[in-house]
Design a protein that fits this description.
By secondary structure, the protein is an alpha/beta fold. Helices cover 29% and strands 20% of the residues. Bound molecules: 3-methylcatechol (MBD) and fe (iii) ion (FE).
Length: 303
């Protein structure tokens, strides 16, 4: 038997099989494997470096932070840019811009009609009301559109990933009224930072990068027959607005905050003094397929 050289080894790894397997998986894995062989050769990766990387991947998976690294290396935004490009090629109007879901969505939040208060741990920040109307491309209100909204608490942490918050704190599902309107009361959220002393922070330190996101609120919006939208809005004035570690900021999605002196009209949200208010209207295009219309967060898709 001839001695294996690198190209012979790679050739075997790419072509060995005892069954057809999955062509798509084989094509992708073979490409990545080939690229990694070339990286190891061209950058002269040493065994200790390779095994440190394998150990890091093991710890990354065990920590549940795979979705943080994908965001930080731009993959989440890459997928959005590619979907935007596909929309542009189709030449159709697409409504409100998409923005990455991120790894912190939890399905099954408590549901409310028209309005709700997100902050159960009350008085932990500046009072904010976000309100808007969901419309279709013709500008018609979408009665009964549903949306999940979620964001970080005053320490920049998300419930369900933070033992100090009740499950579903700052997470709700809202169904718009007959006029397509919704509103919620919450606190003005701060930004987010990747957890310290974690596989993600370790890699970011080695890359000389920060792991901060500007303040934002996530949305998943859907309605029958319309395309489900995953997006987020940013709070204005954040120093990381144009320096998001996940590259997700879009100018059209930065809110404008208004100082409202009186709670008139907002008493049902428990407001009894001045507050901040922002408008976020959502436009949904028609669904091209059932898959388009399905309201699925990532956590639901992989389950
Ligand atoms: C977040 O809150 C987030 O939205 C993303 C995309 C990545 C990490 C934390
Ligand atoms: Fe987030």
């Amino acid at each position: 038997m001839a001695e294996l050289n690198i190209d012979g080894l790679l050739d075997k790894v790419l072509h060995d099989r005892i069954a057809p397997g999955n062509d798509r998986v084989r094509a992708i894995v073979n490409r990545i494997t080939t690229d990694l062989y070339r990286t190891i050769e061209q950058l002269d990766v040493q065994p200790d470096e390779f095994w440190a990387a394998a150990d890091w991947l093991t710890r990354l998976g065990a920590s549940g932070q795979t979705g943080l690294i994908t965001a930080g290396l731009g993959f989440d935004r890459l997928l959005d840019i590619r979907q935007d490009e596909a929309d542009r090629r189709r030449g159709v109007k697409t409504g409100t811009p998409r923005a990455i879901e991120g790894p912190l969505f939890i399905p099954g939040a408590p549901a409310s009609d028209f309005e709700v208060r997100l902050d159960e741990a009350q008085d932990h920040g500046e009072c904010l009301v976000v309100e808007g109307t969901v419309r279709d491309l013709q500008g018609q209100p979408v009665a009964g559109a549903t949306m999940d909204v979620w964001h970080a608490n005053e320490h920049g942490r998300y419930s369900s990933f933070d033992p100090d918050q009740a499950p579903f704190h700052l997470r709700r599902r809202i169904t718009a009224n007959a006029r397509g309107e919704y509103r919620y009361r919450t606190i003005v959220p701060p930004g987010y930072a990747i957890p310290p002393n974690s596989p993600t922070s370790e890699l970011f330190a080695a890359l000389g990068r920060h792991g901060n996101r500007p303040a934002h609120i996530h949305y998943l919006v859907s309605a029958p027959g319309l395309r489900a939208l995953t997006t987020q809005v940013n709070l204005p004035g954040d120093p990381f607005l144009d320096d998001d570690f996940a590259y997700a900021t879009r100018q059209e999605l930065v809110l404008t905050l208004e100082d409202v002196p009186s709670p008139a009209g907002y008493e049902s949200l428990g407001i009894d003094g001045p507050f901040k208010r922002a408008r976020f209207d959502v436009t949904l295009p028609p669904a091209g397929s059932d898959r388009d219309a399905a309201h699925l967060g990532r956590a639901e898709r992989v389950a």
